[in-house]
Design goal:
The protein has twelve helices and nine strands. The protein is of the alpha/beta class and 327 residues long. Strands 1, 2, 3, 4, 5, 6, 7, 8 and 9 form a nine-stranded mixed β-sheet that branches. The longest helix is centred in the last third of the chain and has 31 residues. The chain starts with 5 loop residues before the first strand and ends in a 10-residue tail after the last helix.
Length: 327
């Protein structure tokens, strides 16, 4: 396999040792590397340059998004290496697993209808915090043809160009939104049964986990706003769940409780019942992990609802929203 047909676009800011591990995982694979830096104050640029990566320093006077960073990295890759057929997008806090590029490139070679392939992203330190463990569980999605990918993905250059890349104004959920447009033009997205990346979430505090869910809720709302119409109905179901569990039920319980405290408490019991239901439905995890996952899933709906309200508030008052960062 001629790996000169493959390039990698890495994005990051102040990733430190995580970026070094990311670059080391790619350096020996004979592919072109482009590192897009978004205003790092550590040695990220120097480290990337010393490892042979071409550097793109974003103009930070313009609103920053990961989508914009990936687009600019892709454009740089095209200018310097026009022969590139496939681009591996990867975040600077991740590292590529040995063998992933061989499997993913072979898949795209054999299936010209497939625009993008992703694999199993794993948390590097799942044992450190419950939040890291929840991330690792979240990324264990079904194998086969799928609707969307994440930020780590091998993308066919022709397909990426066909839909004009990521929407640079999206502060969250840019990868699934790109996949909506890819599938609308006939391309397919696959998840392979292969190890792809190790990710260092570094979520050590509840506030970080909460912000991550706020960002997810924001993405749900914006995704439904952009592509919620039939037949796609993109993230409409997820947005509806946020609304019901994060707003409607609490309002009903509080209002009812003002007139009848016992009735309000009975309505609030729907939350522990939902935790029990989700725990019993989870056949893949141990019971304790299933219970923890279900508990955080239910609690996360309140953070997601906050993100939804944030999106609609920004739309209503024409405010340009800033990136929701959790680390």
């Amino acid at each position: 396999m001629n790996m000169l047909r493959v390039g990698a676009v890495i994005i990051g800011r102040n990733e430190g040792d995580r970026l070094v591990r990311c670059l080391e995982s790619l350096k020996g694979q004979g592919i072109q590397l482009v590192y897009v830096d978004s205003g790092s104050t550590d040695n990220s640029v120097r480290a990337a340059s010393s490892m042979g990566a071409d550097i793109v320093a974003l103009d930070m006077t313009k609103p920053f998004t990961a989508a914009r960073a990936r687009n600019e990295g892709f454009e740089w890759m095209e200018r310097l290496y026009p022969e590139t057929e496939y681009v591996q997008f990867v975040d600077g806090d991740c590292e590529i697993v040995d063998g992933w590029l061989d499997h993913s490139v072979a898949c795209l070679d054999q299936h010209p209808e497939v625009a993008a392939v992703c694999g199993r992203r794993r948390e590097r330190f799942p044992e450190k915090t419950i939040y890291n463990m929840l991330c690792d569980m979240e990324w264990d999605t079904p194998v086969g043809e799928t609707k969307a990918c994440g930020g780590d993905v091998l993308m066919r250059v022709a397909a990426f160009e066909n839909v004009h890349g990521f929407r640079p104004d999206l502060i969250a959920g840019e990868e699934p939104e790109l996949c909506v447009r890819l599938r609308a033009t006939g391309w397919k997205i696959w998840r392979l049964d292969e190890e792809m990346t190790l990710h260092d979430a570094a979520i050590t505090r509840f506030s970080q986990w909460w912000k991550r869910n706020v960002r997810a809720g924001y993405a749900f709302a914006e995704g439904a706003f952009l592509h919620g119409a039939p037949p796609e109905r993109h993230w409409v179901k997820e947005s509806r769940r946020c609304l019901i569990w994060g707003l409607v039920i609490p309002v009903i319980a509080i209002v009812t409780g003002l007139f009848c405290l016992h009735c309000g408490l009975i309505i609030a019991l729907i939350y522990p019942l939902q935790i029990i239901r989700l725990s019993l439905r989870n056949k893949r995890e141990l019971k304790l992990l299933a219970c923890l996952s279900a508990s955080f899933s239910v609690l996360g709906k309140f953070a997601e609802m906050q993100g939804q309200l944030r999106f609609y508030y920004s739309r209503l008052f024409g405010r340009v929203e800033q990136l929701i960062e959790y680390k």
